[in-house]
């Protein structure tokens, strides 16, 4: 760090030795606006320089993950500088975007917000249990246009050659930017840094295949080491002259290699590196096909039109096993790929009825639900709902009913006779 920072080393050391780490959140604009969140979150939202919808969490605030609006997916708790890479990716509505190393989902859900329900988000994670966490966060944030997979980067990118407008590689790293927050320092060694750099280069060389001509690739890490940052980019460009490093148009952090950016704690975040590359060579794209709409049992059609208004997830429903999925985006052939989810899981077929899934209500806006009940985030009712309790409600509500907190969907229950039978998933309930 002395060699890297020179005259700024002492300033960095002051930050490193202080216990006041940077904490942040990002508003999920798919479900909530910053003004609404500011009204109900309970503290002042001070913007970060790294993302339009990113804000700092004051050091005295604790237990933010238990806030009802966090359960509702109104925001994602995310280290402030970690939002910088997606900002540099420059996602446009309608893009096809691959997040290749996506768990736990902070950057993927940030991409989803930038897409605004248009285009396609493909989120991949090679480690199975982390892929399941990724899927859970995609569900909580109400993302409708995502594919979540659990594949090796080389296998996935080879199958999806030339398909994506933008690819993000937030590579596994030595995590030096996280040393103040967790025990990653215990795993650090020179050998680990070198092995990370070799793995990162390998992932980048897989990712390039999935990118179409003139597509954008952003490489990022949360570490400080030159070997894993500038060193990986220099090696990749030397091996791939059809890629160029380009200006991402941001002003946060500090420039390195001309156009890449470094962020240190002195810049307002725990630490990040990101570089934006553009592909100049032609890559023929894999073909895609639009999924055929299955002939649905009457129970499915009735469920979809009575529980939700105006078919909010589109017309294209399919049944895979006993699961009912809504996804109207064309895709390449995914046979043989480990795809955990495409689109929104509406529910499961059980004999002649449909059991709704929590995911469907999380992806629905309050206005999309035929029946709903709204509670304030400070109310005893929402506390009891998140705890899994049955609630008293208006007697005129009947059937599957969305529960919203300050207008943001957080789950559902089944209403009958002035009571709401709680359907909030047991694994998500508060203690």
Low-confidence stretches: none
**Total DSSP helices:** 13
Structural class: alpha+beta
Shape: globular
Distance between the termini: 43 Å
Largest sheet: 10 strands, mixed
Strand content: 25-35%
Helix content: 25-40%
Mean pLDDT: 95
User: What is the strand tally?
Assistant: 23
Rg of Cα set: 23 Å
Report on the structure:
This protein has helices at residues 2-5, 9-17, 34-40, 68-71, 84-89, 106-115, 128-140, 153-159, 190-207, 230-239, 298-307, 358-363, 380-387; strands at residues 24-27, 46-47, 54-56, 75-77, 96-99, 120-124, 146-149, 164-170, 211-221, 243-245, 254-256, 260-263, 272-279, 317-320, 323-326, 339-342, 344-350, 353-356, 372-375, 391-392, 399-405, 408-416, 419-422. The chain is an alpha+beta fold and 431 residues long. Strands 5, 6, 7, 8, 9, 10, 11, 12, 13 and 16 form a 10-stranded mixed beta sheet that branches. The chain has a 5-stranded mixed beta sheet with strand order 19-21-22-23-20. Strands 2-3-1-4 form a 4-stranded antiparallel beta sheet, with helices on one face. The mean pLDDT is 95.
